């Protein structure tokens, strides 16, 4: 199966001009599958953590959005138990003009600004709304426990 | 601004204004990242230019994907929707009839479902579109598949309950019916078993007429004192603790749910009975007891019974959610009146032999009048 020129170009760019804090490496045998590691943004409860994600490009990419999932456990109202991410540009607000890089940057921005009003995990969102201090404390704890492994 | 928000292209003149920018001899398409040479790359009124191939792919994908709201521009955060002529240029060259058909079907679906006077028939496999002068909740029937539904919300007709209430009620029933089943299965009701065993044991002996709703003696259920359809709330409930209140709330719900279910079941049973009426009529005509026309009133009575009972069934959700006050009291009174007549009609229809045609027709007339009285307020509203 041939890989569209766009994917090749994007991959080249991801490797040659990486965004600070985000590393994406394509799989050796599958150019549509990427291992991503993302640093927790500064001044967020995820600071200091290194989060692993997987990103895969569907057959219809770039007309259809990429599929992104957290592999590292994370305490965040918009990330599900299985690592699914609730982000508008990954669903109905996807535009073919968006690229992998912009998507990953948006996910990093989501870590800095959790949105408990549009949650994927209701219980976490409720705590985030009722007692933000406790939520942030738990998030820091989880970051230390799961995202600072090696 | 409004046009922008709704994704509609504004004045075409302004579009040409954007486009008259000196075209770059070579431009990179933001989607496939390839460069393309064309003096006039395809773009919508927003001026976002992409290459021909990407546009076609984008449109093909959107059509294949279901195209719920129309096809947006490919640029991120641009809400402009592709208009018909723009899309058409991509499926006419090269000719792509399957894409054209699918696109037209989607367009049709979107334009019908967004039109306030049009509704798709909710009947299974029915392709009819229903036109209504004013978009308000009312019972309509599809001329194709004969499905009846509420024009406003598309569910089965539910007058006198309104759309919002019936939705709440049905969700509640879907959630709570298991609870109701559990309770009836696992708790002992002091009245029920004894009455049921009474019916079982005394099959051949005389049993007094009893009310099938409350299992009480029918003698107390005269025309003027029929109260079985009304739930009597405990006046002291506000002062008791929360456990009692919860129990009372459940009791109230079960009371209405039971009546709702009972009528629903009766409807099914009487639907079977109606097909038997047809047979009875044939037998009677064959044995020279009157003509076919003479017995038609039985069929009419059966249909009327179903109609009245259906209405009665849908009065219970309304009462359950209604706030107490004179209006509710009046409604409950009318409801009780209707209930008496319906049970009377059902009885007479079951025991056709004992009643004259005049009796039955009289009963039909009264029942229908009671139904009309009950609904009068809701039809004009």
From TrEMBL, chain A:
Pfam families attached to this UniProt entry: UQ_con (PF00179)
Top-level taxon: Eukaryota
Stretches that traverse the bilayer: none
Domain UBC core residues, every copy: 2-148
CDD domains: UBCc_UBE2N
InterPro entries named in the record: UBC, UBQ-conjugating_enzyme/RWD
PANTHER family (alphabetical): UBIQUITIN-CONJUGATING ENZYME E2
Name of the protein described by the UniProt record: UBC core domain-containing protein
TrEMBL record, chain B:
Protein origin, superkingdom: Eukaryota
Keywords: Metal-binding, Repeat, Transferase, Ubl conjugation pathway, Zinc, Zinc-finger
InterPro entries in UniProt: Ariadne, BRcat_RBR_TRIAD1, E3_UB_ligase_RBR, IBR_dom, TRIAD_supradom, Znf_RING, Znf_RING/FYVE/PHD
Catalytic activity: [E2 ubiquitin-conjugating enzyme]-S-ubiquitinyl-L-cysteine + [acceptor protein]-L-lysine = [E2 ubiquitin-conjugating enzyme]-L-cysteine + [acceptor protein]-N(6)-ubiquitinyl-L-lysine
GO annotation, biological process: protein ubiquitination
A Pfam family assignment: IBR
Domain RING-type intervals: 25-232, 29-73
Span list, region Disordered: 1-25
Enzyme class: transferase
Entry keyword Transferase: yes
Molecular function GO labels: ubiquitin protein ligase activity; zinc ion binding
EC number: 2.3.2.31
Protein family per UniProt: Belongs to the RBR family. Ariadne subfamily.
Listed PANTHER family: RBR FAMILY RING FINGER AND IBR DOMAIN-CONTAINING
Record-given protein name: RBR-type E3 ubiquitin transferase
